[in-house]
Amino acid sequence: MLKDKRILLAETDRALVEILKSLLLAMGTKVIVVSDSHGLVETASKEHPDLIIVDYDIPQIDGFNVTKVLKTDFLTSYIPLIVLIDRRQIRKKMLEIQQGIDDYIIKPPDPIDLEVRIEMALRRTEHQVHANALTKLPGSREIEKLVKDRLHGNHLFSFAYLDINNFKSYNDKYGYVQGDGLILQTAHIISSVVKRFGNKSDFVGHIGGDDFVVITNPDKEEAIAKEIIKSFDNLVPLHYNKEDRDKGYIRAEDRSGKTKNIPLMSICIAVINNKIRKIHNIIELTEIAFEIKRYLKTVTKSSYLIDRRSQDHGMYKRQENLALIHEQLKIHQTQKSKYFKPLGQILLENQLITHEQLSEALKKHWLSSKRLGEVLINMGFINIEQLEKVLADLKNESVEKPFQRSLPSASEGS
To answer: Which domains does the chain have, with CATH numbers?
Structure first.
């Protein structure tokens, strides 16, 4: 079970680091070591390890505060966390270490005890979260649990249901490998946007297929929806070949089996919140979300709609009301942004990398928060000098510059 699992170890005692590394490597795991709280939080967000082990007592890490940070950030909150603690401190620290951790181990650790506790923590997390196998985002069970918690606790929240239009046709024509790449990029777009524009406690989940969920607050919902659409519409056309991209459609069978012109993929976002009216249960919430989604499916472009009705009059009345907001919906289609070439496209056109290299690097980029330029350099596909030169040559073109004395930002890698 532990083979190839990635474990992040936060420890400053060199002797203990060597002991733990030897034990963990013998179990077949891969080990990343950090020695301070900033490095721990940053590395956890970027690397998405399968498990984190933290020495609770070293001052450079401040175990109590850093565990709170990790467990309130949606990118790291589902990573199991085990703390190392001195036997003499266990009574004094017990109340603290129960706040957000998954388990603890007495120092120095017994090899068998260490392995058993790691396996148990991983099993518990997999059972509780049921993460999507492709995107690693929490699945339906965790989504349902969070929504019920918000409803039962009378918390103010927004629920956004995201769905990709025409994904099936794309998947049928380009194949499952390309389809998986599109899903990975969409997950990366959504997670990155929520990280930048949302709250620390926000949530991103993957129901399955091309359906995603974002849980945030009403004051963040619109900014998040707009930015997701902007990023999606800029990057997703590059998943098509040039011929299809130029035409703006592909020839494929629709769901009824008829061959027709299918527009390029777009994304629709149905948003419901309990700011104005009470949502009684998850069935009501999903019913409204699906209803708005069906309505948005009739719009060819990427769009979002926030349900701001003050009360629920039942399904048929809601459908009647939806017909009255067609003009309002136009406002919620984001303005087409100026097209820019992402970093990957620039490097391909300059023949600095191959399509295979870009595909391999993109998968690592999408599954982590590492910048694409950083991934390409780390994999040995390009060097910094090459990257600087090609972008300097393009300075007079209408291209957003993703590199200025630093590596490109994640939002520009595609």
So the answer is: 6-129 (3.40.50.2300), 140-331 (3.30.70.270), 343-412 (no CATH)
